[in-house]
Design goal:
single chain, about 375 residues, mainly alpha, two-stranded antiparallel sheet, 11 helices, about 0% strand, elongated, receptor, G-protein coupled receptors family 1 profile domain-containing protein, transmembrane helix
């Protein structure tokens, strides 16, 4: 299960007893958990999600790398990093979760139990890096390295929290659990809030801030790209006088009118491209943020509910699995968002090309 899903794992929670009772035969249960139909369906769905996410994110990475947009566009640098993070989720989290669900018992030993959970949380914290869009993609290596180190530091408690314990069954059954680490209830609640902040709230805030920076960057680049000519002094005069002066100025520069007309069309088209780029960034930003919130909000709400309200069996196993699938589906949604905006191109943008070698870094 994931670093927090063990709280709702039906194969673990009903059978947990104290370590002292593990040696007391009177507390042993008859049979260890086995693979159920519900678990088989869950494992199958996880496998399908892993394959779909793998294909989608690989296609996204290849598409962005092939067009070299990640080296010229801050927005596509963001999408490239998101695809890498989602690819890790599909390879490690989804596939690993599917294997664990299918085997029921943990068969990886202490080392894999700790490193598996550590890696899952590290990937989760890596979203702090993935969604942090560097303002300058040329200087993003240092922030990314720092973010990776910070992610490892924040995920390190998992190396201590998770361990392999023998289940209270008459037959040999081992599971990777958090049971026995927390001595007080408030400790688990505190770490749950910490996970909520670092894996949902803070990434969401960073998402919003980064996308605001995208719009600001577009506006700055637009101001740099366009030389806004100061109004002619004649424009400050009365309308009639200004009109006469403008006619004289036009007559004086009539010989340069073809070049001026060409330059005006060029600037007008370039301005339209920046407007479309800004709107495209706005749409992608809103959809990615909305998808992130919609996918993960129910899961974290369920997690907080289980920790603080103790709802017992009010939420069924199937509903818990559905909410978990809904959260993990975020790794499948992001490639679809990129694909939708990559495949859809305005007809004007395809049929018309600007004179010269100008191209915008935001489309």
């Amino acid at each position: 299960m994931t670093e927090y899903d063990n709280l709702t794992d039906p194969n673990i929670v009903p059978y947990l007893v104290s370590s002292k009772d593990l040696h007391d035969n009177s507390t042993l249960l008859d049979e260890a958990p086995t693979l159920t139909t519900s678990a088989s369906i869950k494992a199958t769905i996880l496998c399908i999600m892993a394959v779909a996410s793998l294909i989608g994110n690989m296609a996204t990475l290849i598409s962005i790398a092939f067009t070299k947009k990640c080296t010229s566009s801050s927005l596509y640098t963001l999408l490239f990093q998101l695809a890498i993070s989602d690819l890790l989720v599909s390879v490690w989290c989804l596939s690993g979760e599917a294997a664990w669900t299918y085997t029921v018992e943990w068969k990886g030993g202490q080392f894999l139990c700790k490193t598996f959970k550590f890696s899952q949380v590290l990937i989760g914290f890596d979203r702090l890096r993935a969604i942090r869009r560097p303002i300058s993609h040329r200087s993003c290596l240092k922030p990314i390295c720092v973010a990776w180190m910070l992610s490892a530091a924040l995920a390190s408690p998992q190396l201590l929290i998770f361990r392999v314990l023998k289940g209270p069954f008459r037959e040999i059954f081992y599971q990777c659990v958090t049971y026995g680490f927390y001595t007080e209830e408030w400790q688990e609640q505190l770490y749950t809030v910490f996970s909520l902040l670092t894996m949902f709230v803070i990434p969401l805030v960073i998402l919003v801030v980064c996308y605001v920076c995208i719009f600001c960057t577009i506006a700055i680049e637009k101001e740099r790209a366009f030389v806004i000519r100061a109004p002619h002094p004649s424009m400050e005069r009365w309308p009639a006088e200004s009109l006469v002066s403008n006619l004289r100025t036009r007559d004086q520069h009539r010989q340069h009118s073809p070049q001026r007309h060409h330059h005006t069309i060029f600037n007008r088209r370039r301005n339209n491209i920046f407007k479309r780029a800004k709107m495209k960034s706005l749409r992608i930003s809103i959809i990615i943020v909305t998808a992130f919130v919609i996918c993960w909000a129910p899961y974290y709400f369920m997690m907080i509910t289980f920790i603080f309200l103790n709802p017992d069996d009010k939420l069924g196993e199937d509903m818990q699995s559905a909410i978990f699938f809904f959260g993990m589906s975020n790794s499948l949604v992001n490639p679809l968002i990129y694909g939708a905006f990559h495949l859809w191109q305005p007809s004007v943008g395809r049929s018309r090309k600007l004179p010269g070698s100008f191209s915008t870094a935001f489309t």
